[in-house]
Amino acid sequence: MKDATFLMGNWYLFIAALAMATQAAAAVARFLEMPSAEQRKKVKEWLLLAVTEAEKELGSGTGQLKLRYVYDLFLQRFPAVAKRISFETFSYWVDRALIDMREMLSKNKAIYRMVKAEEGAENDTD
Question: 109 CB contacts (<8 Å, ≥6 apart)?
Fold first, then answer.
């Protein structure tokens, strides 16, 4: 009887949780239904952000640590995609994202200062 009272008193929490779970499932389903090229594009766009964050957190000269850091983030963010691509492919995508990041940092001094966290940092990225 105590359980029924708890359920009746907190029914709105269960409805809210169900609604959130439904929204999450719908988002995952939409992503998985996207064509492979579109999925790759989204992952590659996200990778630019991830490698930039890794550069900011770990600094220059930490290539393997950055790769591991970004891979861990990737596994959390895109678990379904991670199951379908090899680590070699992922590593190649990270290398391409690092090239894009270097170009972005060389062209935009405000982003460079944000990533390097100091005004006079050298332009030294992995």
Answer: none
Q: How far apart are CA 50 and CA 62, in angstroms?
A: 14
Nearest to 71 by CA among 53, 45, 97, 50: 50
pLDDT (tens digit per residue) in 30-40: 777 766 788 88
Query: CB count, 10 Å around CB of 119?
Result: 8
Q: How many helices (H) and strands (E) does the chain have?
A: 7, 0
Domain range list for the chain: 1-33, 35-126
Predicted model pTM: 0.59
> For residue 44, what are the contacts with CB-CB under 8 A and spacing of at least 6?
93, 96, 97
